[in-house]
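WARN no homologs supplied; continuing
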Amino acid sequence: MRRFFGNRANAPFNISGFLLIVLLLSGIVMIFLPYEDPNALSVTPKEYWEIIVPLVTLILGYMFGERSNGD
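OK structure emitted
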């Protein structure tokens, strides 16, 4: 995991960035996912974004607020 996410100091930031990219890409795919019957999907794109937007803002808050403690 060290090779993929970097050293101990950068790993939390890199993991957060990776999760952010995965969430945003999955949300974009969910928007353009073709479906004829809206009842066929268990979660609509709007509901999916309602789930991932708080996670995205949490990750962004961690990424940008992490170094504000005087470092």
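The chain has one domain: 2-65.
OK
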